[in-house]
Amino acid sequence: MILITGATGNIGGEVVRQLAATGERVRAMARDPFRADVPDGAEVVRADFDDVSSLEHAVAGARAVFLATAPGPAVPRHDAALLAAARAAGVAKVVKLSAIGTTVAGEPDGPDGNGPVKVGTWHRPGEEAIRASGAAWTVLRPSEYASNTLRWAQAIRAGTPVPNMTGSGAQGVVDPRDVAAVAAAVLTSPAWDGRVLTLTGPEALSVPDEARLLSRALGRPVETTDVPLDVARRQMLDSGLDPAFVQVTIDGRAFIAAGRNATVTDHVERVLGRPPRTFATWATDHLKAFIA
Ligand SMILES: NC(=O)c1ccc[n+]([C@@H]2O[C@H](COP(=O)([O-])OP(=O)(O)OC[C@H]3O[C@@H](n4cnc5c(N)ncnc54)[C@H](OP(=O)(O)O)[C@@H]3O)[C@@H](O)[C@H]2O)c1
Q1: pLDDT single digits (tens) 247-256
Q2: Is the CB of 97 under 6 A from ligand 1?
Q3: Residue 24 domain-assigned?
């Protein structure tokens, strides 16, 4: 049985659906089981990363775990709690959903070599812990999710410009369905044990590129408006977001704007044996969200 954490989320939910469709035994972990929309045959377990005894219950009998946490400063604590429970239960394999830009000691541009912009700091402790866990492991470092553009849906429906915090900085925007497909593949095969996979789409796209592709799919203009990072920081703080969350978010946007995240890899294709989906395909498949 494979335990999927973050099962009410974007990636975890899709991993549950894809694994269940291939007949794997899956257990979806959720804080509120009623919010977990799982297919027939999948189990649901109520558990919280902040409740150790619930994690012990969730991992019991699992041979593998997909570790997906909500973005934020709690990631290291949540990773550590799940890994401790998995280790105690003798789970054989853990696949961690990390993020592009994360580095660990010994990698080029690792923690010691990082410049003034720090990215990936939420995931580094968990990436280090997984290597020391004694279990087989794979780390997935996806690039920007195509689905992040759903945050623009309201503006696009209203015909107003979408915010651009990253100028012409491009990223290897990846379809969440491909991230989940890679997760499902590596959870069920030893071929990628001990590997770090950087998951991108087939091309590097800036925010204006994504707006252009959405515009083409919708058949009407989608404009962007530049939002300087100091303005974005103030807006996020004023809306009550945790300052630590805001700092990492702004650092990440600065990293992208400087052109430092324009990475495209062939890792999705190497695992799945087919090219990653394009952003245009994602947009066509999610058009309804942008139509009033
Ligand atoms: N967005 C991007 O472009 C991007 C790119 C690369 C990497 N990432 C990484 O991907 C991860 C986010 O993936 P996602 O988009 O699939 O996440 P998501 O949709 O935000 O879902 C987060 C999941 O975590 C669960 N969760 C939150 N707090 C919990 C707790 N205390 N105990 C148990 N479960 C808890 C949520 O459950 P509830 O329903 O109970 O809240 C939800 O299922 C982050 O680690 C992020 O750093 C994101």
Answers
A1: 989 999 999 9
A2: yes
A3: yes
